[in-house]
UniProtKB/TrEMBL annotation:
Cited SUPFAM superfamilies: ACT-like (SSF55021), Nucleotidyltransferase (SSF81301), Nucleotidyltransferase substrate binding subunit/domain (SSF81593), Poly A polymerase C-terminal region-like (SSF81891)
Organism (species): Mycoplana dimorpha
Function: Modifies, by uridylylation and deuridylylation, the PII regulatory proteins (GlnB and homologs), in response to the nitrogen status of the cell that GlnD senses through the glutamine level. Under low glutamine levels, catalyzes the conversion of the PII proteins and UTP to PII-UMP and PPi, while under higher glutamine levels, GlnD hydrolyzes PII-UMP to PII and UMP (deuridylylation). Thus, controls uridylylation state and activity of the PII proteins, and plays an important role in the regulation of nitrogen metabolism.
EC number(s) from the headed UniProt entry: 2.7.7.59, 3.1.4.-
Cofactor(s), by name: Mg(2+)
Protein family: Belongs to the GlnD family.
One Pfam short name: GlnD_UR_UTase
Annotated catalysed reactions: [protein-PII]-L-tyrosine + UTP = [protein-PII]-uridylyl-L-tyrosine + diphosphate; [protein-PII]-uridylyl-L-tyrosine + H2O = [protein-PII]-L-tyrosine + UMP + H(+)
Written domain comment of the UniProt record: Has four distinct domains: an N-terminal nucleotidyltransferase (NT) domain responsible for UTase activity, a central HD domain that encodes UR activity, and two C-terminal ACT domains that seem to have a role in glutamine sensing.
GO terms for biological process, alphabetical: regulation of nitrogen utilization
Name of the protein in question: Bifunctional uridylyltransferase/uridylyl-removing enzyme
Amino acid sequence: MDSKLMVPAHSGLLDGAALRAQCEFIARAHADHRDQMRQALLAALKKAYVEGREQARELLFTDGSGSACAARLSWLQDQIVTVLHEFALNHVFGAVATPESARIAVTAVGGYGRDTLAPGSDIDLLFLLPARPAPWSEPAIEFMLYILWDMGFKVGHATRSLEECIRLSKDDMTIRTAILEARYLCGSRDLFDELTRRFEHEIVSGTGPEFIAAKLAERDERHGKAGDSRYLVEPNVKEGKGGLRDLHTLFWIAKYHYHIRDPEDLVRLGVLSRHELKLFQKSEDFLWAVRCHMHFLTGKAEERLSFDIQPEIAASLGYQPHPGLSAVERFMKHYFLVAKDVGDLTRIFCAALEDQQAKEAPGISGAFSRFTRRNRKIAGTLDFVEDHGRITIAGPDVFKRDPVNLIRLFHIADINELEFHPDALKLVTRSLKLINNALREDEEANRLFLSILTSPRDPALILRRMNESGVLGRFIPDFGKIVAMMQFNMYHHYTVDEHLIRSVGVLAAIDQGREAEAHPLTAQIMPGLEDRVPLYVAVLLHDIAKGRPEDHSVAGARVARKLCQRLGLSPKQTELVVWLIEEHLLMSMVAQTRDLNDRKTIVDFAEKVRSMERLKMLLILTVCDTRAVGPGVWNGWKGQLLRTLYYETELLLSGGFSEVSRKERAKFARETLAEALVDWPQRERKAYARLHYDPYMLTVPLEDQVRHAAFIRGADRAGQALATMVRTDSFHAITEITVLSPDHPRLLTVIAGACAAAGANIVDAQIFTTSDGRALDTILVNREFPDDADETRRAASVGRMIEDVLSGRKRLPEVIATRTRGRKRSKTFVIPPAVTISNTLSNKFTVIEIECLDRPGLLSEVTAVLSDLSLDIASAHITTFGEKVIDTFYVTDLLGHKITNENRQNNIAARLKAVMAEEADEARDRMPSGILAPAGTLAGTRTKQ
């Protein structure tokens, strides 16, 4: 019996002796019936594995150890493979008497070779053939593989001779890594030992730098594919930055370069300290626990920690909510802190590796050519030197002797535009205890930090290095509280600390004139600011109080007031920073959820802003904040809304004398459009320039105006009363559908319903009425296909659905019912429906704002309810923040009056809450069949100018 069957640590998972005895019985009972023997063996092995796997799952919940779970599953798999191998040789192929020299060796490779296995992982096996294999060798391998496949395992396998393994390892780094991790399971031990000996002598010896360079390049490529940030809010636990594969890469390199089998040896060699080894093991255990729970929960090899499973994983790991943070947010913060620890270990490990490589191979070229020690002095400092473009320490006591050097290191790197040597960052990480209150209050340290923050070079890069090394969170403890903090929603793509650093990066790009095309207004006003410092401080700190029970804007302003004094800002600068942080969401919310053509909106906003300097800084802060949320969040439309709000407010704040008045800007926009239509006849150009009201001319970019002009002209020439046009945008992951139709009070309802029926989820909408009584509506929907051609075809089908419903060829209730049949409401996110009805936000309209969880068809149902309640929608503002929608409707009754009756307001709120909670499905049945079809007279008008 193989000794692996007797491992006591995992004996509770499977009784090896009992399974072996059962297999012996099966062999005797079915000796004359090969098929029956195979089926009985398959059933016995499957039953043993399923029971053992369930035991491993229960133990994971009992002791919480991910590494132990992975080891148990690997051990369990070993038993299955070993028993299966012995059964094949003894009872299927009668190979008991085969001499040792003719036997095969069965080895585990990959993750399985490391003696760890996730519940859904592949089983990677290498069947090693001797020089003269027995005739039964390959049939036996085939028998084993088919049994494993029939058991439901995904088996990655290779059958090679020893010579083939050595030859392929020389040219293929993947095969070389697999054999590096090969682990003996059963069969010929001598053959496996010979492979190990020859691999070490013929492959590993003298090729350390080559292997290390390949593995680090492979790591960088993998990070790029998985999202090159360890702070993505839906991380890949296996392949992502800071994930398990990064730890595996470290061990591969250590095993190859230092010729070790156990991570404990890294302490003996001085590569890692005892504390760092424990951190390695703790990080690995946590990541394995997360990964095993993910696989058990989903029943497959799920590696992406997506929103829909994060709450359940958090519950499985025992996380509880705290004031300001939910259980899932606490779990994910722990996850990102572990990912950061993995980054620290990588940096420390590479520093030690470079140091040894420099001593052993000073003349090596290529990836390690930088190891030669020809340090150069850096002007103005004796504590730091330059090592081939990287700043490093002049001696081991530079931080202990002067803790301000922990900040000065980054300042000198910034002004000299140097990268960081791993030695320097390793010592930084090991010196974090030196950052105490005395250093935080040190005037020179704060001056240096402020210089880093407002650097004209790349402040985001330096801040990120400070954050990754732990300095930023220690130097500013309130920042340390939001390090690795995620927000459990689909809107924010990064952790809070990463979002803030990215915001600074956007600001620096604007400040340096690199964003003039994307943000022309901010690029124009940035050079004219009286003082850049308050803006940089506000951008870095605007979300610093996230995760607290109170409003993060108010709490953040309070934090900033204390911190600004410490950083040496004047009282005037401090007050500006405090105001910017307290109001950092104001401009975005007004621009996206309010009617910018309603004068009351501008008046109310101007009263809060009060000065042009505040307005300019708030605009720039808003752009930086939005841009840093994540890819696809910013778009040209949002930029145009912000510019419109800025110009209208500027007019009020400057006493009515704007550099460019609204009327002049509209006139200029018409002239510009006419010039862009230079190929059109003069009469058509003039007619089209008069077709749109000022709001359209001021809010729609010229490029879109030109497209709309050609679209409307084509529809008119074809005699089409109803037409649609589509455009895809792969960068922002949205698709735009423009609808031209006779105006109609329920038009938005019908369009939204048709989109829902076609499976298109609306994320934004832009609605206008032309001067000749037609509606020009642009709907933005989530992109479905990565390929533009596929997405264009899909969008065209959505457009046809809109046309069919508007023309009456299809009935909306029927197509929606077909689409939504069996639909399950998302349980990942919970947003209680909220309705706010205000008569103070507009002088002419009642403003209804709804906030709830987004879902297909919601906009159609909400607007249908408003129509049922005899409300006329003057303008609608559709805003999506990930899974949450905030939709605002400016309405009146059918006589054009505000809704002032309290009972009626309560009824409106109740009806809207019901439909938001999916309790008003009957609203769909009252939707009109079509607009162009003779469907009777519908009350109300739709004014969107």
